[in-house]
Design brief:
Elements lengths: L2 E8 L3 H12 L3 E4 L2 E6 L1 H11 L9 E9 L27
Antiparallel strand pairs: 1-3, 1-4, 2-3
Length: 97
Amino acid sequence: MRNVYLISYDITSPKRYRKIYPIMCGHGDAVQYSVFKAELTEIELHSLKESLWPLLNHSEDRIMIVNLGPIEGRGDNCIEFWGDSKMTSQERSAIIL
């Protein structure tokens, strides 16, 4: 089952940020700067966490992952936007495990 996740991050180093951003683009859609909406299975979420963990400086950086629920339910309808989006949708590729 896929759930909708809201993932945001604060990365203090531009070098680490440049490594994390493309990983996030491969797993979700940018909805604001450093905020992504991702529809992931538990396995895909675990893979994302394993990709991000070694890149972080755990005393300076922070990632927040919020599970909004199943995509068939509340998860896809609980985000409200006001104003024009400054982000463009990124091309995504599938991850096959």
